[in-house]
Amino acid sequence: MLYLLDANVLITAHTLYYPVDSVPEFWSWLAHQGAAGKLKIPIENFEEVKDGGTDDEKDLLFAWISDKDVRDAIVFDAQSDPATVADVISRGYAPDLTEDELLTLGRDPFLISYALASPKDRCVVTTEVSKPKRVRQNRHIPDVCNTLGVLWCDTFKMTKALGFKTGWKP
Question: Which domain of life is it from (predicted)?
Answer without folding.
Answer: Bacteria
